[in-house]
Known about the structure:
Elements: H1 30-33, H2 38-41, H3 76-93, H4 99-124, H5 130-148, H6 153-179
Amino acid sequence: MGRRSRKRSTGRTIAAPREPVVARDAATPRDAATPRDPAASREPAATTPPRTPQRPPSRRARLEDAPPAPWSPFPLVELTILFGIVLLVLGAIGVADRRGLFLICGIALVYLATLELSLREHFSGYRSHSALLAGVAAVVAGAILWKATPWPLELNAGIGLVVFAAAFLGLRAAFRRRTGGIGFRA
């Protein structure tokens, strides 16, 4: 006899799976095994939704795991970066006599949008931006020391390196806590 194609219907209907049969002790009478009040035998309905199995942490960040922005449907970060790039181009080609102002505003807009995105991704555990954020902390500390103190430039640079190292270690530890032990995620 030849094989039948799986595409053909056999004409049989598949019955739903039956409830499991509960084995009764032979010594137990039938009336004792079935309760008289059917409501008493029912278990309370579960109020918590079934738990979805969690994936183990991986080194590869998935796009669906990206943290949404508070203004999620509106692309504020992308538009801010685009506007900053437009200002940078206008400043680079020298539109009007405000070339420096265009460059500074363009750099500031791109910087702020990038910083916001990096902070959101880092502290949600999506991707590690420890070096970038530690570099920002070191530059801010160096700029404050350069303006506020009469110390030599080498001392300010050394303090900036110490701030970078401390911030990097702290940010890496925060990322590891958030991701369950992964120190870097690409």
